[in-house]
Each structure stands twice: as structure tokens, then as C-alpha cells.
Amino acid sequence: MRTLIATVLTNSKRKDIYCAVKKLSDAQLDTLRKTNRPQLEEAGFTFIRLLSLEYPEVKGHAIFFEGHFDEMLRVLKSLEKGYLL
Length: 85
Description:
This protein has helices at 26-34, 37-43, 69-81; strands at residues 2-10, 16-20, 45-50, 59-66. The chain is of the alpha+beta class. Strand 3 (45-50) and strand 4 form a beta hairpin. It starts with a strand and ends with a helix.
């Protein structure tokens, strides 16, 4: 099962703007932002690039977790503490 966690769009100043699911707290989203992408991928997260045919200058990606939301919360907690399960 793949669970959508957030979508990320990059603005013209190259700053990422996150839109997370309602169940995700600000602290959990902060952990997601601070953790580097290879470490997140190792922990079970998948990044899928978003494209727009109408607006080719829009760049972004969707972040999914390969598993249930509850499992993802445990993984984020372990990443926050500095180790993986």
C-alpha cells in the first residue's frame, strides 16, 4: 500500500512549499523537511515528480510512504531520534 504524505511545489525563489495531509503534525512535517532525501528513501518514502503540460515551469513532487500511515509515524519518530528501524 502506498500512502500520500505530502506534495511539494518549488516557487520562483527555489523554495519548497509543502502541503501535507491533515493527520501529519507540524513537528512530523518538520522532521520530513529536515531529513535528507536518500535517508527518507531508505526508510520507505517514495518521491514522484509532478509535471504540468499546461504550466511547464511548475516543478514539484509528491511524497508517498510505502505502507500504512501508522507505520510511517513510527518511522518518522525513529528518524527524529536519529536512527532507523
